[in-house]
# Entry
Amino acid sequence: MADGIIIGSDHGGFDLKEQIKAILTELGYSVTDVGCFSSASVHYPDIARQVSEKVSAAEFSRGILICGTGIGMSLAANRFPKVRATLCHDHLTARLSREHNNSNILAMGARVLGIETARDILLTWLNTDFADDRHQTRIDMLDKPPFV
Ligand code: RB5
# Structure
């Protein structure tokens, strides 16, 4: 069984979240869904907080956040210590977000992506390891003043 993943979306990302959840479940991941649970309007910072607090506290090693563009979710998530939320648009950004940034939250925009691109981003992000070496120095800088 693969690791657990925590996932959330606003109304703009609801349909894509359901599709991503189905893929994760099929892959054997245990998925914790914090909502939203319909396409009724909600506020993306509320959802981002629920996922980001758990990743920040290391209760989950990975999270996924989806809104219309992915921008609001990534803005909100990156305010939490130790969260490295990366807004990915394609295979390359998904790969480099893991290799260079050790991304622990994947943000996607449902209004930007089709399901095949979203699936490719998801699988790439799940299966790419952090490259370490010089990139760890840069990540360590993010955990110190003036960033925190
Ligand atoms: C919601 O209308 C929309 O603003 C949200 O889904 C997202 O795109 C924000 O960044």
Notes: The chain has six helices and five strands. The chain has one domain: 4-142. The CA atoms of residues 4 and 35 lie 16 Å apart. The radius of gyration is 14 Å.
